[in-house]
Structure formats: C-alpha cells, structure tokens
Design brief:
This protein has about 500 residues and is mostly helical. The protein has 20 helices and three strands. A three-stranded mixed beta sheet has the order 1-2-3, covered by helices on one side.
C-alpha cells in the first residue's frame, strides 16, 4: 500500500521537477519559508477574524500551502523510500479511525485523518528525497523566526502589560501565547545546540541568546504553566543529551559556557524586557485591542469568561453534570484513595484550574465512534475542549483513536531522541529541533488540547516532524561508509547560496 502511494506521488509530482528547477534556489526556498509563515499567520490572526468559519478557511488554505510545499521542495528525482513499519501502522491506523469516525459521526472539524494520511505524507516523501534537507528545515526555522520578530515588535509597541495580570502577547489568551512560544523555544534551542556542536563564535551566537532570553520573559509574563512545563522539558532534555555528547566529544567547556551565557542573558535582559513591555506601549499610545481580549489575573482567574476556544461551536453541544457524589465513585486502590483525599478538598482542581472535573466529564461521554463537537457543557459551563489530547481524541473520534494516538506519541518520543543521537552530525542545523518539538508538544498536551494542524501551530509543527521519523535508515551507518567514521564538516547556513 505504501509503495503504491509513493509510486502515485512519483507519477504526479515528477513532471514538476523540471519546472521547479528552472527557479532560482534562493527564490524557491524563500517561497517555502513564506508558506510556513502563512500557516503561522493563520494560527495567530485569521482564527480571530473568522470565528465560525475559521476551520474551513484555515484548512483549505493550509492544504494549498502543503501542496505548494511539496512542489517547491522537489529536488533532482523521486525514488521509493522505505518507511518504518511501526510508524506506518500506527500513523495510518490512527488516520483510518479518524476518517471512519468522520463518516459515521459528522463533524465540523472533519478531515484530519485524510489530511495527515495524504497531504502531510506527500510532503514527507518529497523532503526525504531532497539532497539538502537542512535547507528545507532552515526555511521552516526562518519562517518561525520572522514571525517571532514581528510578534515581538507588535507586542513592545502596541500590546500593554497590565500589573497583576497575565500577558497574552498578540493573542487573546495567555495560555495560547505560551503554547506558541514553546515551538519558538524549540527552534532557538536547536540553534543553541548547533552553536555548541560546531563551536560557533560568540558574536554570531548573540541573537540566539537574546531571543531565548526574550522567550523566557514572555513565558514568565504569560504565567502559562503548561508552556513552562513544556519549555522546562525541552531544556532538561537538551541539558542531558548535549551533556552526554559533550563528554563523549570532549566539548564540556563549550557546553558549560553555553549554559552560563544562557543564564546570564536571561537574567540580565529580563528587567529590560519587563520595562519595555510596560513603558513603550504607553509612549506609542496606540494600543491594539481584540474583540475577545481577556484580562487574566495572576491567580488564573478571568475578568471576562471569553477567549478560551479552539474552534467556535454553538449548536448540539452535549451537557454533563459532574456532582460531588459521582466524583466519589473511584477505585479503592492506594492511588485512588490518595487522589480522592486530595480531590475532596478541591486541591487537584485548584492546582489544575478545574481540569479534574473536565476530565471526568469527558470520560463519562466516551464512546466507540466519537461525537459531533469538540466542546462540552460541564456543570452548565461551556468548556472549549478536554484540556488533554488523549481525552480529546477519544471523545471526538472514539476511544480506538486514543490507542493509535498513544502509540504514535510513544514512537515520536523514542524515535525523535534516536534521530538526534544518530543524525546530529549530518543534520546539525536542525537535529535537536525534532525531539524538542516532540517532547514539548507531548508535555503540553497533558493539560492542553492541540490536534488541528491549521488551527494551532504547535500541532502543525508536531505532525510535520514525523517526516524525519518515518524514514527507515540509519544515518550513522551511512556516515561510516562514506567518511570512514569521521565527522563531516558542519553545514553553515551561508553555504551554497540557497537562502
């Protein structure tokens, strides 16, 4: 089946190779960057302007962008690529369950299975056939960086930082802002890893340290606990993996220097960014205010109960009441008694901002083939989503989808770390980006819901990195065969003149 699909892609895309190669490489890669940038714009802006129709427009435009990406990423030729069986079975099993659920239970957020199975895998296949995949990933990283620079400029000029509140940046919700920052953090951490690996001069590393310091400030100002946990997970993973590699390659001094500089820049620039966020918008005095702006207090409470949606839905939303009596119907194991003893005092609910009640409400409505809507009324209050990817998949597409998604999640963590440890020498410019996105996403989805690729950019980034996890080959073996075990020269961003 996979071989048949790849052959169809070869027949469909091969005629475009001649056309694409007539374009200047620099122009081609810039358009690729613009496609990624456009998807970020969809995530950041369009959904706030077209609430009820945002999914349709975002998905239609997103599919067009993927088609353009596939065509512009064509290289010299397309050949069949071996894909890992475990990844293929889990991926297409998940997509099949999604699609069956869409057919049996009509949804507004339909088509995810087909988009992942057809459009995303088409781009995977084309990128795997490219001779300079590092340039393609550089286009992705450049788009993220451009968007971050524009975001920072808009924030410092037009978005007020309110005392006692949580900062939402260019978004209406500080939690959404934090989740967006997780991917930015992953991109710049991959740059930091590349700097350490190649011994880049300090002067050239300054933009990376300043950007990471700004991200630290923004996450701190947003007070988004999910984003904090995800960023900490990425940082801890880098400290462990890069620490191991530094000891092996005798680069401990560079490794410790990078850590020290990261801490120094973050501490030194924090008050500068803080004063800038508070004072500059007042000097400009032209604030940007969205219709659904929400002022969050430092304790997590909202001044207005709006601005917390994944997608606008209103009709046919189910109602669930989770009463205290029902909440006590739990198991009598040691763990169950511990959770119950905490929950009766509302400790867990307070810590998780009411998520325990939300989880129980969604669990009560799980079935085989899913539901029409993402949202749910819990105890008379509209909840935008399950605040957990596993539960959301089980609720929207049926509990079998949660099994396949669980397998995909486990495989993404294992394969991404393995990818970094075995591909870091050849793909130094983006090697750490793959596990950083996977780990950050998985941690974030424990307490948040991120699964629609053209509605939330972290979901797009997560599904997109599977292209490097699908391919069945060991780069380390190739390096030994081609270079007799020696480290190849690191690829500099400026080499080749492609970007």
């Amino acid at each position: 089946m996979i071989e048949f699909y790849q052959k169809q892609l070869i027949s469909l895309l091969s005629p475009w190779i001649v056309v694409v190669n007539r374009m200047k490489p620099k122009t081609r890669y810039r358009i690729i960057s613009l496609c990624f940038f456009a998807d970020l714009v969809l995530f950041c802006i369009v959904r706030y302007l077209l609430h009820k129709e945002s999914y349709f427009y975002n998905t239609a435009l997103g599919m067009i962008f993927l088609c353009v990406l596939a065509i512009l990423s064509l290289d010299k030729t397309l050949v069949l690529k071996p894909w890992r069986k475990s990844m293929v079975i889990s991926w297409y099993g998940m997509c099949l369950v999604f699609t069956i659920s869409d057919v049996l239970v009509t949804k507004k957020v339909c088509g995810l299975g087909l988009i992942l199975a057809i459009h995303f895998t088409a781009v995977f296949f084309v990128w795997q056939n490219h001779s300079r995949k590092d340039l393609l990933w550089k286009a992705f990283k450049d788009a993220v960086k451009w968007a971050f620079v524009i975001n920072a400029v808009v924030c410092f000029l037009f978005r007020f930082y309110v005392n006692g509140g949580r900062y939402a940046g260019i978004f209406t919700n500080p939690n959404t802002f934090g989740l967006y920052l997780v991917i930015i953090f992953a991109v710049f951490m991959s740059d930091l890893d590349w700097n350490v690996d190649t011994g880049k001069r300090f002067v050239k590393c300054i933009p990376t340290y300043v950007s990471l310091a700004l991200i630290v400030f923004y996450i701190s100002a947003s007070q988004a606990r999910t984003a904090m946990m995800a960023a900490c997970g990425i940082l801890i993973m880098w400290l462990v993996l890069r620490g191991i590699l530094s000891v092996r390659s005798k680069q401990v001094k560079k490794y410790l220097s990078a850590i020290g500089l990261l801490v120094c820049f973050s501490v030194a620039l924090y008050p500068v960014f803080y004063l800038g966020a508070k004072k500059i918008p007042k000097l400009v005095n032209h604030p940007i205010v969205f219709q659904d702006d929400v002022l969050y207090l430092a304790n997590g409470e909202k001044i207005k109960d709006v601005g917390d949606r994944v997608i606008a839905e209103s009709d046919r939303i189910e109602h669930v009441d989770v009463t205290p009596k029902e909440e006590q119907l739990v198991d009598n194991s040691i763990w169950g008694r511990l959770v119950r003893s905490l929950d009766t005092k509302d400790t867990l609910n307070k810590i998780s901002s009411g998520r325990i009640t939300i989880y129980k409400a969604y669990v009560k409505r799980l079935n085989l083939w899913g539901h029409h809507r993402v949202t749910l009324f819990v105890n008379g209050r509209k909840v935008s989503h399950a605040h957990n990817n596993w539960l959301q998949f089980a609720y929207t597409y049926g509990w079998p989808s949660m099994i396949f998604y669980g397998l995909i999640t486990i495989l993404s963590l294992i394969r991404s770390v393995y990818f970094y440890m075995t591909n870091r020498r050849r793909n130094a410019t983006y090697a750490f980006l793959v596990p950083a996105i996977c780990v950050g996403f998985v941690i974030a989805t424990v307490t948040e819901c991120l699964f629609l690729p053209f509605e939330v950019f972290p979901a797009f980034a997560y599904w997109f990195v599977f292209g490097d996890l699908f391919e069945k080959k060991v780069e380390e073996k190739e390096l030994v065969d081609e270079g007799q075990g020696e480290d190849p020269e690191p690829i500099d961003e400026g080499q080749g003149g492609a970007l």
